[in-house]
Amino acid sequence: MKRFFILTSIVAILCSACSNNDDESSSGTKTKASLKVTLVGKGVTPRSVGAPTQAEENAIHGFTVYVFANNILEKAATSTTLEGLELFIDNLTTGVKRVVVVANAPALFPTFEEGDPYSKFALAASYIHLDDQDGSLTNGLVMSGEEVITLQSESAGTNDLDISISRIVAKIKLGTITIDPAVGSNPALFELTGVAIIKSKSLSSIGIPSIVTTQPFYSGIEGLTVQGANVKEYLYEAIELDDHDERYFYVFANTDGGSDDADATLLTLEGTYNGEVMYFPFRLPAIVRNTQHTLDITLRRLGTGSPDPEVPSDPATLTVTITPEDWVVVPNQSAEW
């Protein structure tokens, strides 16, 4: 089940007139309205070791509510409190409003001024950098959501609005690793040394109105196309056959995916066979925001890995099972190499 955070908005209209126009292009009347917004969530300290709990990944450290009329910002208000997450916004006009919420935005996320267009969310200057979603959870995972409401007068009753917000990242988690050696493979000669994400998109829009992600690619291991500053430590974890539990990575959405797509994001195992370094890459299917993919891997042909972490050399030797979970769960996927 997809989990959401709920914003409850109670709108009290201070004057009697209101707009009956339900067209989103309405800019509202001069009738004044106030908006009370409550975010249901918990502040939490970042993880130190092991996998984060769902509560940690759900943590809200701060959020901003943007109220647009006719796609022009009428007012924005921000809360950074960790208790009683509530905002009161006054001096609004009645009429059709688009309400946007951005939670856990990084420090460099641009400030919106009254009069700014809704389309500012889609500008490259508003994109989120993967470096700000590196897994430490110090600032929390960036989330967003939006909804349209017509603010009515007090005489029409209380206006309530629920907005569901979701993470802009996806989570890739390493599940089980099974060694089932094929004929001719000697497991005593094999050593598992690491796991990495390869070719993750490095930039993502805030998800308003939709997710757009861009290159350059980032990887945890240097390969043929991803090198130098685009190799990120947070996309690599040292592992062993008896120590690979709770390894996970946050990545941005990638509409490319599958065994034949050169721009797909990959999960790659690193190891040595008889002292020779080799890789076992698996191209992930298309990745969407707010999903978790758990990969269960079976290694059989231990001496036939790829020399490049970006390029699967023998797809028939790798079996991977992927299971997305809530977050939004994706079915387990198995891979065999």
Automatic annotation (TrEMBL):
<dbReference type="GO" id="GO:0009289">
    <property type="term" value="C:pilus"/>
</dbReference>
<feature type="signal peptide">
    <location>
        <begin position="1"/>
        <end position="21"/>
    </location>
</feature>
<keyword id="KW-0281">Fimbrium</keyword>
<dbReference type="InterPro" id="IPR029141">
    <property type="entry name" value="FimA_N"/>
</dbReference>
<protein>
    <submittedName>
        <fullName>Major fimbrial subunit protein FimA</fullName>
    </submittedName>
</protein>
<keyword id="KW-0732">Signal</keyword>
<feature type="domain" description="Major fimbrial subunit protein N-terminal">
    <location>
        <begin position="33"/>
        <end position="150"/>
    </location>
</feature>
<comment type="similarity">
    <text>Belongs to the bacteroidetes fimbrillin superfamily. FimA/Mfa1 family.</text>
</comment>
<dbReference type="Pfam" id="PF06321">
    <property type="entry name" value="P_gingi_FimA"/>
</dbReference>
